[in-house]
Amino acid sequence: MVRSGTTYLRKVLHLRVHVGVCVTQIDNIIVQETGDQSRKIWRLGIMNSDGIVENELTVRLHGILAKVELTPGNLTKCDAGKAANLCQRIEVVGLNSERFEGAVRNISVLHGAFARFFGENRMLPLNYGERKGESRLSCSCLFLSRISAAGDEEVPFEAGVDPLGQLAKFRKCGLVHTPENKVSYLKTIKEANNDGSNEEIVIYEAFPGSFRPGDIVEVQGSLIALANKHGKVKTTFQLSALNLIDASFSKAAERSRAKVVIPTPAPVVLKRKLWHEAEDKEVVRARRQLRELALEDQETEK
User: Fold this and answer.
1) pLDDT confidence band for 265 (50 / 70 / 90)
2) Which residues pair with 18 in a beta bridge?
3) Is residue 295 a part of any domain in this protein?
4) Mean pLDDT of 170-196
5) What average pLDDT does range 72-89 have in this prediction?
6) Is there a domain that residue 275 lies in?
7) What is the extent of the structural domain holding 125?
8) What angle do CA 211, 152, 226 make, to 5 degrees?
9) Is 81 inside a domain boundary?
10) Cα(264)–Cα(278) distance, integer angstroms
């Protein structure tokens, strides 16, 4: 069952994946420092022919969701220190798709741009995370930023991100949701025109809770660099948008699980063996006397 499902995903992914990370020129990429002293972030910018940085370099690739953690969960025992590190997190795989593996290799090229800027001795190695020789790309984005480091205005949470208001309560601790923490959740649907002649692709907003392992998605984000307390620099993939392209596999898996009939366990009758012999004898004697009384009443009535 797993093998056939994996084969299906390989075929669909081969058809869906039509774009990876295209790095054709490294000379026009520059490292920029953002943030403040409490949390410095280095990003990659793209320069035009005049040497002016026009846009941040963004990454777009397609893959299959292997892990999904897009909602905060239960934060009853969570303090401000832990809340500052809570992330919207996913892990995508390509099932050894050549395009996905090529995209991962091209991300290592971007990592090299940071390595040249900071120096090889200061950079930590890029860790994709592999399982059984298969590349996995982890993507994340913080739910909250400290007010001192935000540099942006506070924005409301996206629909479905904080339905119980658990994250909002940390505002009194100096943690807020900013555009830097915003992740756009989308889904792509093919819809027929009114006359039914052609289909057009329509993109809608989606809830983070609608994403499941096995979904084919488009991931958008950027590779950023962060310094740790030891002065070393590591790169991480910051998630900015997640687009659901094909959920047929995860839906089929849910239907299969729903059809599985869980057998009802047979009732177990427990008999009292120890220390209750006297009580059991009294119960038997009382029942016998009640039956005898009932018979006497019937004879009297006759």
Assistant:
1) confident
2) none
3) no
4) 84
5) 88
6) no
7) 2-259
8) 70
9) yes
10) 35
Average pLDDT for the chain: 78
Mean pLDDT value of segment 182-192: 85
Residue 290 domain-assigned (yes or no): no
DSSP-assigned letters across all residues of the chain: -HHHHHHHHHHHHHHH---------STTEEEEEEEETTEEEEEEEEE-TTS-EEEE--EEEEEEEEEEE-S----TT--HHHHTT-EEEEEEE-TT-HHHHHHHHHHHHHHHHHHHHH-TTTBPPP---EETTEEEEEEEEES-EEHHHH-S---PPPTTTSTTSTTGGGGGGTEE--GGG--EEEEEEEEE-TTSS-EEEEEEE--GGG--TT-EEEEEEEEEEEE-TTS-EEEEEEEEEEEEEE-HHHHHHHHHHHHPPPPPPPP-PPPP-SS-HHHHHHHHHHHHHHHHHHHHHHHHH-
Claim: this prediction has a pTM higher than 0.70: yes
What's the confidence (pLDDT) of residue 11? 47
State the total domains in the chain. Answer: 1
